[in-house]
């Protein structure tokens, strides 16, 4: 946890809630969801495996609200900076990890897009004499892929009944009808709708994994990002970088998952449509699928938002905490307590959603959005984005800790940058990876 019970600080006076059954125990704060849509979200808290006991101070000590200050004996952890046992800031490894993973994702996405496009161009007779110099358009490629999906669905359906012959007739009929309905939806729906739904389904599996008590230690280690670690050896710090991306698709609470899923389906579809629309100012590249570009965009937006939150914690919040705790006059102050509680773990997809939302607002400024609790009321999308960003700025200034405001603002900044430079960069990368500009103007 960001406010974990093991920060390697000696003589720390933190605030603990008195346990009714005996000595007080240090409890970690719940992870901070990224959701921009829920203001009253509550995620259940859990207790770390090691509880640190403390003895109460004298009654003359001033209480902070309903919390009584305690003196806590915390052992030094490994990987400290050596300056009074203070933890080190983690900066350059997360930056290298995010740049490396994002670069590899875009390189693979461009290579896959070029290879898939070349395969379908060849299947449709690109360069053949009978085409008389007319190359297949993006619309032709999309129709060919749709017909291929129809063919595959029919083949699976013809063999499905034989495989289900051992089931009762009603069960066999239910499965066959369900498969037909799903196949029809997948074939007839545009990829801009299918791909976000597939991502939401994947996040649903991770959400269900959070609900298993046996998987809790695994999920906290690999699907919850902690910007400050105890015993931060290089190997452990590199491993912690993995959660910069896995935490993006991780949701511990049902409301958090539901609202981020609704937002991803809505704004993700619009972002996909924008990325699939050719820019007349750029060279036209034949494209059979825009899904790799969209997935690379979401991955980069999630990495950018997670990295922004991580760096802000390590470069601003952690030094502020260390300064407050190094001063003997402030060891038990509310300022030190607030700084200590500000370092929390985080998870959620709303940083990536903010990127898609901001890019959509810039690409389709005339669009209107509705508030989920007031579906009959709509407002311009630009005004909605401005209001959400303003709330995050106020929350950051005021020190609100319900959501990771830095992750939200970082995601919004990424969407702004990508709107201006994303398509030219993607076109340049595809050309560098072997794509050839065409004169065809038809598109999907």
Automatic annotation (TrEMBL):
Query: What's the protein name?
Result: Presenilins-associated rhomboid-like protein, mitochondrial
Q: Where in the cell is it found?
A: Membrane
- Cite a single Pfam family from the UniProt record: Rhomboid
The organism's superkingdom is given as Eukaryota
Q: Which UniProt keywords apply?
A: Hydrolase, Membrane, Transmembrane, Transmembrane helix
Instruction: Please tell me the species this chain comes from.
Output: Vanrija pseudolonga
Quote the SUPFAM superfamilies the UniProt record gives.
Answer: Rhomboid-like
Q: Gene Ontology cellular component?
A: membrane
* An annotated GO BP: signal peptide processing
- Ranges for domain Peptidase S54 rhomboid: 242-419
UniProt cross-references to InterPro entries, sorted A to Z: Peptidase_S54_rhomboid_dom, Rhomboid-like_sf, Rhomboid_protease_S54
Q: What family is it from?
A: Belongs to the peptidase S54 family.
Q: Which residues cross the membrane?
A: 254-274, 294-316, 337-357, 369-391
Give a yes or no for keyword Transmembrane in this entry: yes
Q: What terms describe the molecular function in GO for this protein?
A: serine-type endopeptidase activity
Q: How does it sit in the membrane?
A: Multi-pass membrane protein
């Amino acid at each position: 946890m960001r406010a974990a019970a093991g920060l390697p600080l000696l003589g720390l006076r933190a605030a603990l809630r008195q346990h009714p059954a005996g000595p007080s125990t240090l409890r970690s704060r719940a992870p901070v969801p990224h959701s921009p849509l829920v203001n009253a979200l509550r995620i259940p808290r859990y207790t770390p495996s090691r509880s640190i006991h403390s003895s109460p101070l004298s009654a003359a000590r001033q209480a902070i609200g309903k919390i009584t200050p305690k003196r806590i004996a915390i052992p030094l952890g490994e990987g400290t900076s050596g300056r009074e046992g203070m933890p080190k800031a983690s900066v350059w490894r997360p930056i290298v990890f995010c740049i490396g993973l994002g670069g590899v994702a875009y390189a693979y996405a461009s290579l896959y897009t070029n290879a898939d496009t070349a395969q379908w161009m060849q299947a449709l007779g690109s360069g053949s004499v009978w085409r008389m110099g007319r190359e297949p358009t993006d619309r032709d490629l999309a129709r060919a892929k749709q017909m291929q999906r129809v063919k595959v669905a029919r083949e699976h359906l013809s063999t499905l009944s034989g495989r289900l012959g051992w089931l009762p007739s009603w069960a066999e009929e239910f499965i066959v009808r369900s498969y037909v309905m799903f196949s029809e939806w997948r074939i007839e729906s545009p990829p801009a709708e299918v791909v976000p739904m597939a991502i939401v389904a994947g996040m649903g599996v991770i959400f269900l994994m959070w609900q298993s008590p046996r998987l809790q230690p695994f999920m906290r280690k690999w699907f919850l990002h902690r910007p400050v670690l105890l015993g931060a050896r290089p190997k452990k710090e590199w491993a912690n970088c993995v959660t910069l991306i896995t935490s993006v698709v991780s949701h511990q609470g049902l409301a958090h998952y539901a609202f981020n899923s609704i937002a991803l389906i809505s704004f993700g579809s619009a972002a996909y449509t924008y990325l699939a629309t050719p820019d007349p100012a750029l060279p036209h590249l034949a494209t059979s699928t825009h899904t790799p570009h969209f997935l690379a965009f979401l991955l980069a937006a999630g990495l950018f938002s997670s990295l922004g939150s991580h760096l802000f914690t390590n470069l601003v919040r952690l030094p502020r905490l260390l300064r407050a705790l190094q001063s003997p006059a402030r060891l038990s102050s509310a300022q030190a307590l607030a700084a200590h509680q500000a370092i929390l773990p985080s998870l959620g997809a709303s940083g990536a959603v903010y990127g898609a939302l901001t890019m959509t607002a810039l690409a389709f400024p005339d669009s209107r959005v509705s508030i989920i609790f007031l579906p009959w009321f709509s407002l311009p999308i630009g005004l909605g984005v401005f209001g959400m960003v303003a709330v995050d700025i106020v929350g950051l200034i005021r020190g609100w800790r319900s959501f990771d405001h830095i992750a939200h603002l970082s995601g919004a900044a990424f969407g702004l940058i990508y709107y201006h430079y994303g398509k030219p960069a993607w076109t340049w990368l595809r050309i560098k990876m072997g794509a050839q500009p065409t004169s065809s103007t038809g598109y999907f």
